[in-house]
Specification:
By secondary structure, the chain is mostly beta strands. It is 13% helix and 62% strand. The protein has a single domain, classed as Beta Barrel (Porin).
Length: 231
């Protein structure tokens, strides 16, 4: 009876030991939709009566980081995927009497699963298709400040958090560069499956001037360059 129970375990261990593992770290450049936060930003610029505010930054592309640990089964790679991206926005006006500004910094840190399928496994330059699915933990640091030197100056600083379910799909090319090291270039498109609204720890939500709740929207292109190592 004990032997019958051990056979499946021994078989799964031998199967795993016969496979290769790979680990990679890289940087990525991304574009971010952020449509709700851009709307919140434009409202602040529009409703500041008499102040010619300008949007100087509106959630531009920024460098991020990512990594994965995968098991290689023939032409398939299945594993764990981590990432971190950040971007921000600024509305600003300044003259001799003082300044008015709004700063927003949005960050997401994620953990998920990654599946890649190599199209031409015997070639030096291996093309593959890739898909990811994971959960992103978001934070938003919001600062609104009016500075004139008067006691009536205004300062608002809040931190909000939320979570998102994010998925991506794309293609890539990977090649060996030295011994067990490889380089990979991977363009993907990331889209939101579900976004939860930004909320303070005290329970308050980030709402626009019409009372609608806001959330980060990380939809956009990602292009990553990574270095990998095969165990």
């Amino acid at each position: 009876m004990r032997c019958n129970l051990l056979w499946p375990l021994l078989f799964s261990c031998s199967l795993t030991m016969g496979q290769k593992f790979s680990f990679s770290l890289g940087i990525n450049g991304g574009t971010y939709s952020m449509q709700y936060l851009k709307f919140y930003q434009s409202q602040f610029a529009e409703y500041a009566a008499g102040v010619p505010l300008k949007i100087t930054d509106s959630f531009p592309a920024r460098l991020g980081a990512e990594g994965n640990l995968s098991i290689n089964i023939k032409r398939f790679q299945v594993g764990v995927f981590i990432w971190r991206n950040s971007t921000g926005g600024r509305v600003h006006y300044e003259d001799y009497s003082g300044y008015l500004l709004q700063d927003m910094v949005a960050t997401t840190t994620g953990l998920g699963i990654r599946l890649a399928v190599t199209i031409n496994p015997k070639s030096k330059y291996k093309f593959y298709v890739v898909s990811t699915l994971g959960n992103g933990w978001n934070s938003l640091a919001l600062k609104e400040e009016l500075k004139t030197g008067n006691p009536s100056d205004y300062l608002k600083q809040n931190t909000y958090s939320s979570s998102s379910i994010l998925s991506s799909g794309g293609i890539g090319i990977r090649t060996s560069v030295y011994s067990k090291f490889s380089l990979a270039l991977e363009p993907r498109y990331e889209f939101s499956v579900k976004n939860n609204d930004l909320q303070q720890s005290s329970g308050g939500f980030l709402t626009d001037f019409y009372g609608y709740r806001s959330h980060p929207n990380w939809d956009g292109m990602r292009i990553s360059l990574s270095i990998g190592y095969d165990f």
